[in-house]
Description:
membrane, mainly alpha, cell membrane, DMT family transporter, 291 residues
Amino acid sequence: MRLTYFKLIATVFFWGTNFAAGKIAVQSLGPYSTAFMRFVIGALLLMAYLYKTNGKIPSLAPKQWGLVFISALMGVFLYNLFFFSGIQYMPTVRASLVIAFAPITITLGSWLFLGEQVSVIKWAGIALSIFGAAVVLARGDFSSLLSNTTWGLGELLIMGCVLSWTVYTLIGRVALKTIPALSLSSFSTLIGAVLLFIPALQHGLIERLEQSSWQALAAVVYMAMTATALGFIWYYEAVQKIGATKAAVVGNLTPVFAAIIAVTLLGEELTLTTIIGGVLVLAGVLLTTMK
């Protein structure tokens, strides 16, 4: 069980670095080409590992392919179009905060549609971790979260990430009852890459690749290897072993890691509020995962 949580936290760290890597890649490649290149590389890595693990490409029943397609549509195609488009219109910190709403929607969805029990302690842990994320991102000044209160295009796009990821997580919970995590991750990534190809081609995929910087290409490869290949496998394993709600709450570490990356890569100051907020997030995670 400890290994499961370690892999999940590592996955969340990869997602936290995704904001910085995505910003770098989008500057040269744009949102559509960035998403496509990330997942076509990730799909090749996952399919190769799937073949090596099983000695063949596993076959699925028609009903299982339906679940895989929905996972690809929500977790790969829509989520990444929303994500890479949204981070163009808003700061990384604010985007991280909006995505921090995902545990709430996943918990509600698990409770409403999957019959997952949510205790008072779990609700308290969710609330505490959300509050901790807000402390980190607001740097102790909560009025800053309310500035420019009208939600713009960026906020709406990132909220689309939250909703699509919620459906992806819940569908994954159902699919994992009959489909191994590696098969589900590999096939959904491959189908998602195929879905992303047309919009990427329509928005100048070839031209953007020819003109892209090495930093953008390196960022895409990094996202494909970590947040995509390893991340998809480990996240689905965690959902299967510890449940959608617990996996989602650990995901609240994403804005904490995003803030740390901002400090190390962008030279921002590591403040006391960042440390306090990180402790609150960890406390919320512990409350939610305790028996």
